[in-house]
User: Fold these one by one.
Assistant:
Number 1:
Amino acid sequence: MGKKSTRRMWTEKLSKHDGGTFFKNDAQTLNSTSVSRGFKGVVMGIDASLRGTGIAIVDFKETQPVLMFSTRITCQAKLSFFQCIERIFKTINAILQNFKINYAAIEQTVYVQNYKISHILGSAKGAIIAALMNNNLQIAEYEPLRIKQAVLGIGRASKEQIRRMVCNILGIEHGISYDESDAMAVAFCHAWTFKGNL
């Protein structure tokens, strides 16, 4: 028996994930051109970071997904750790007052270089999760490789490849920040791979 392709191995890995139902054969690979799009709803995608959290709100309709809003929550170096956490929490709360969100999706932290970075990222995500829960939203988390696989069909895509793809799909300019395009990719991952209840 020949070696399995990377695409086949990744698809099989996703099919065994217990977070939902996934595509199980190469005829239904997880990329922007072949995924069945039966999903409808408004998704807030979030790429968490202490200094530059990406936010994107995408409305998935029957035909074409529409970007409703995107931003980067910037926390300058002059702001303390605690001021950054406060800004993230308050900004997300404020955004949620202006949009009716059906689902929230956030990128999962899979690997960090050291304890300090892990603590910083965990705290930023904690502020985000608290804001989402404060607004009665259920949350889904997705591994970075799964997000890239869902959007581009490959798990090792660059940030520039992700940005080009999501901008092309949404029909928007490519000048957005990587944090925003990463957040859009998280939203696409949720819409294109999640089925069932959170």
Number 2:
Amino acid sequence: MQKIPPRSRLYNIPPIGTGTAHIESLTSYTSRLVNAHNLNTGVFFTKIIFPYLGKDTFPRDGINPRKSCSLNNYNQSSKELVNALTDLTTNRNLEKHTLLDFSSFLSTYEIRSNKYWCPHCFQELKDKNLPIYEKLLWVFEIVEVCHIHNCELICKCPTCNTNQYHLSRNSIMGHCYKCGSWLGYRESRNNTDILKEHLHWQQYIIENLEALLLLDEIERKKINDIWVNYEENIMECFKKILNNHNITKGNFFKLIKVPDRLYYYWKNGEQRLSLNTLIKLCYVTNNQLSKFLFMQVQANPTLTPLPDFVYNNIRNKNYKKFELEELRNKILSVINDTNQPPISLSQLTKSLGYKKPETLRSKLPYETDIIVKNFNNYINDEKQKRRNEIRKAVENLFKNGIYPSQKKVEEELGIPSYFWKNSNRKILNEVCVEIGIIRKKGPHTKIKIGPRNG
């Protein structure tokens, strides 16, 4: 008898676009796999993936939606998921659906935290009765448009305006995790016209990234081997560029619109060049990204200035930095605004265009202390309000002889999924201890409702 091939524990659904520029992302493949087994993502990870990996501790919901983007990057979690899915589905080369093969030269901040997609691509797939999937190309921070439909990628549900994550507990491929609405459409909805310069720049970015994704296994290994000596390679590339064009380092960095101080971080191994900087460097020197990574920088006779769009685009500029008195007035206006709940110092820092709260603290310590104090008081008041609501619900159930399970308390409060938040579960346990109700620990545990003896 012909030898029977090995069976897979999960459906052997093939990933889409392997070996092409339209390759599917790992989170997209995982989501399709979850949907095929009629499970939610949390159950899939807690009952299948984590036990298979032998993990004893993991998030209660199985995943953290805000951090699910990391599964498309190069890190331990993406590597573990690739290994688990490879064994459970018997599909090979799943690492190509992540950035694991580019770990030696990419920085760690190239992946978006939110999910972006082209609604027209979704709609075309649906109209052709093809599987809906998300491209690995869309996870890159610097990719802002779909070069097929010349439209901007979107990250919010067109119906409820909710930001979408790469994976969420109840995610269904192509639908909003919150309201369930379809995420694709044919017509243009509130899309501002894309400037030709913007489109030209994005097409150049996408062409270089697609060439990167099309590299075969041997080429990827060669690049990884080359860039083991990252600091030496950077110094060699810049030395060659500056000598070929007889230009100073300061003038060259002005041309690629990058602060020259970053060079010292790069050559000391403290940072890596971002993809955005690499693309700018390749454009100005008339080189392809793949050639640069193979250390085949060509000595072209002239340098090409970046498109005006790159210089003028507000996305590539820092926020305005305020004078001290102007900054003080901005913060005081936030403090005195009673129509909005107090915000954290971190939120205020981002809204004013600064990167670190310490910057504001050093400039205006008195005002920032007020911001912190107001926010902490607001958080404590909200926590006490939740505690009072939960206590009242528990007491009402207790009086009626009903065990205050999480589900019953949620029904009493009229708020579904209220205890998915860990802080609310902690408050419920504390309230039950105060009242003297023994919490249920398992389906067969005897329940005692009433004060404890002694």
Number 3:
Amino acid sequence: MLDCVATWDRCLEYIGQNITMSTYKAWFEPLKPLQIDGDTLTLEVPSMHFMETLETKYLKNLSGALRTVIGPKAQLQYKINVAENVGVTEPSKGEATPKLPDGYPKVPRPKNGDENFNPFMPIGVHHMNVDPQLNENFTFENFVDGECNRLASSVAHAVAEKPGDTPFNPLFIYGNSGVGKTHLIQAIGAEVKRRNPLKNVIYLSANRFMRQYMEATKDNNIAGFVKFFQQIDVLIVDDVQELAGKTGTELVFFTIFNHLHQNRKQIVMAADKKPVDIMGLEERLLTRFKAGMIVEILTPDYDTRVGIIKKKTAKDGIELPDDVVDYIASNLTTNVREIEGSLISLLARATLTHCDVSLDIARQVVGNLVKNTPQEISVESIVNTVCEFYGIDTSVLQKNSRKREIVIARQVAMYLCKELTTTSLSTIGAKLGNRNHSTVLYACKSVATQIEVDKDFQMQVKRIEAKIRG
């Protein structure tokens, strides 16, 4: 205790040299040193609001003092004095309120002098019986890897193997609706539970988290709410963008987030956009979201769509004809949910009419899901459109010219042939000057990379694709 107090006194000397006396008395004198363990100093703070202000306004002063006194690896932990003030801001109006998750503890409001109650300490974690709220179908085995999601899938596997013990904490996955984010983040939870059934894992949407917080506020049980989530080993939150603008919910989520992260518990989040694009998200949350791994899942490419169709039908013991698989994969390009819906409708219609699944039935089903079913797109039509756009003759692409404009046109043609048709890479290469499979693959990757870094080039490709689709 003496070392702890002496260490904090030295920190205060450093802090006092860089702030006014009124600030010092208001925000630093109330802090009480509790213990020092190696390079980690634990301070008691009067309330959550107090801690939030320190983090927002004076973190630089604190970190500078600790690193000067303790060393470059110094860390700071907080203990909230809930006996004096639970300290969670009241929620904003309009935040609705349903039931809390299974295993949620009804903790009575602490009384003054209750030294045993500390929501920041993982008390009795192994006795919790938490329903993880996971969909049993959302596993890694049922997830189809492809170019669109390979990085996200690789990171998710690494997190599931060593939750909280990788550089990917927090893990933030974003992408458009229906590209597989929910499946992948739930697969992490399923794999963690498979490897270690005693781990406390929970999946929920940000909206549900918000409503549970409202229920806790209504029941005067915020302390129990916070304690429950601070005992989770792997917290998985979907649709995180829904937290934006909900002041009370953001505050309590921030508190839980900090505790879990400090204690090396895994946090996994998903949203429809990357953190910096979420309007209304508080800066302190944005900063923490960006501290881990942020990875995007793109719209499934053709090969991935084919893999999804085959995996889902194989699971049901059904084998679709290749032309049906190709037709669905070529025409339902937006998201996985459309593909799933088409398969359900397709199989139901075939069963009710006692007919085999055919291309005609597939056309009818897909026609109900998309406004305008695209016409068949050929390699020839793509080449003609690309050459027309760049103002060159189609015969030029067959030659070995290394002029920049010819190379770009040829690579764009190869890329669009791969994306918009079912033609194999070898066939695409054969139709564009007898190039081999690896040449076409290199061209496709080059175009995809250029699209990501060059907005003008991206718009060119999009305009060409729009012309091709008519």
